[in-house]
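Open question from group meeting: does this chain pack into something compact, or does most of it stay loose? Before anyone orders reagents, we agreed to write out a predicted structure and look at it together. Recording both the input and the output here so the notebook holds the full record.
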Amino acid sequence: MRRFRASRGKAMRRLGFATFLALGCGWSAGGSAQNVPPPANEIDLKLFDKAEVDRSKGCSLALWQANRDPESDRFAFIFTEQFRGTAHQRDAAQIKVGTTIIPLQRVGTGGKSEGYGVFPFQLYKMPDEQGYVVLDLKLEPEQGEAVEISSGKLMVTMLGKLAFRASVKGGVGCSGAPLPGPAAAPPVAAAPPARPAQPAAPNAGGAPLTAGTLSPGTAAAGGTLSASSQTRPPSAPAPVAPAARPAPGPEMFERYSVRQQQVPARFLQGINQRFGCTVPAQRNGITGFQMSEESAIWQIPCDRFGQNQTSVFALVYLPAPDQQYEILETPSPRGLDRKLDSGVLMSAQWDVRSRTVTSLYPASDRQDCGIFERHAVTREGKLALVEFREKTRCDGVAGRPDQWPLVFGRR
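Structure tokens returned:
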């Protein structure tokens, strides 16, 4: 079992970690697996309504239910934590139990941080030590100024109640500059009282939406948060091992040159008609990045502007590229102008180790202003924007594009 490094609070000094979990899970010397508590002993954990979670400004950590999409689902977020200032000082983290939003203070960490002071193992306590939250997270290497949490477990324990675990994903990053800081977190004894959540709006049928009740065996529908597992009191305390990690994605991701005979003429015709690509720009050939035995991402040269070249990216089915392929879209952050069509990157540079590709769109010949983007390749073979920087003033100082003002950054 990995040890936690206590940062503050008396709980970690008084209790061993296994004892702390035993208390949180309702363990007792005479307990047994057959003594099932009544339903009243279950933790009524809820998902946040999307309107309650604002990540449009500043830097934050957010976790959502693993089988939900925070971009499209109204109920997805389960844990949030806001950072302030350049030192990323923490506001109180938050979860929702019933209709109450509970503030959390971080008191222990473990493992290696990938940025923002976020660790694979983190321990939080509730006001008056009424309960604890344990995070067991898989952190991906920092990409630009964002850290992806590709998988993990969140466990909530409260005295006299059954511990509850939920599978989560998440991200750490910034949208614009950090919020003003530092804003030191108040001591737990002086923590503000939990504030009630806003009531959920009625759905189209008029019935109130359930805001993500955690209940064992319930399917994830509407706002309901489905449980990954529920802990029953065992006969004696036992060490808690880190959650099993999911199997890694394809290990075949590597760069190769696509032979001309592998590229059907009809495939190139379709690309050129949609994006206005020119045949002379494609004489240098197509570069492939293997995703599996039957699929790959192809980088297709499109057009050249002086020293800069644009490229289109497509996920192709290798046995029949002209019949089965998908253009990888590169949408811009809301309200911003990319200058290029979605699916087109300029001066693309790959980092094969981290599976990321950067793009630079210069707004002047001196390359002292313009747009810098970084995309990550997802397990599904799509491009996900993780960093967007823009320098609007062409001041004659070229500098490094990856240090231009940050406009958007996320997992």
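Observations to bring back to the group:
The first strand starts at residue 5 and ends at 6.
The CA atoms of residues 56 and 175 lie 6 Å apart.
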